[in-house]
């Protein structure tokens, strides 16, 4: 067997574990959604809270407040001291954010990318096609809103075409219509602001606010600009902004 034909079992195991984790998360959150519907929750926030807390387990009778615990009751929120190795790992992830599965994206997005600018740059780095591939099954509950907020808060004219591509790819993911309908009021407003900014960037190419066309990243390219405008109009309808 040649060197190139050697199977990397460690990589396969990692990929399998990531897939199992993503599948478990999907089933757990889906079950929580069904429970919330059956309970006829009074508001979206209550519905959201039930889903986001789906990983928590109830305390057993033997568990006592203040008693000695050998294992954390909520491993998702347990705080640990950050070692030098962990700090190095965080820096590396921020520098090179390249998740291969949706589970890896969830993990790194929420664990390492805390600020808006970091998240925005990570989305630009991945681009629309990669994001569409990662979330072809489902973006995941609550994540679509976070992505839209990051884009709305930091979009720049020079990134306009890339952002439009990201929005198009997200619109092609599984259960997009459902995830869009579950956006909170604040997330919905961020989505509206994002499209308003994108529309403003397509204004006449004369100088605006003292900035030149080059500074706004809006050099005249008729064919490209027409394609951008068609895509923008299409996305306005898909995201229900029209």
UniProtKB/TrEMBL annotation:
Domain RNA-polymerase II-associated protein 3-like C-terminal: 98-188
Pfam families: Dynein_attach_N, RPAP3_C
Subcellular location: Cell projection, Cilium, Flagellum; Cytoplasm
InterPro entries membership: CC103, Dynein_attach_N, RPAP3-like_C
Domain Dynein attachment factor N-terminal: 7-74
Principal location listed in the UniProt entry: other
TM segment ranges: none
Alphabetical keyword list: Cell projection, Cilium, Cilium biogenesis/degradation, Cytoplasm, Flagellum
Claim: Cytoplasm is one of the keywords in the record: yes
Origin superkingdom: Eukaryota
GO BP terms: determination of left/right symmetry; epithelial cilium movement involved in extracellular fluid movement; inner dynein arm assembly
Gene Ontology cellular component annotations, sorted alphabetically: extracellular region; motile cilium; outer dynein arm
Function: Dynein-attachment factor required for cilia motility.
Family membership noted in the UniProt record: Belongs to the DNAAF19/PR46b family.
Subunit structure: Homodimer.
Name of the protein in question: (raccoon dog) hypothetical protein
Species, as recorded: Nyctereutes procyonoides
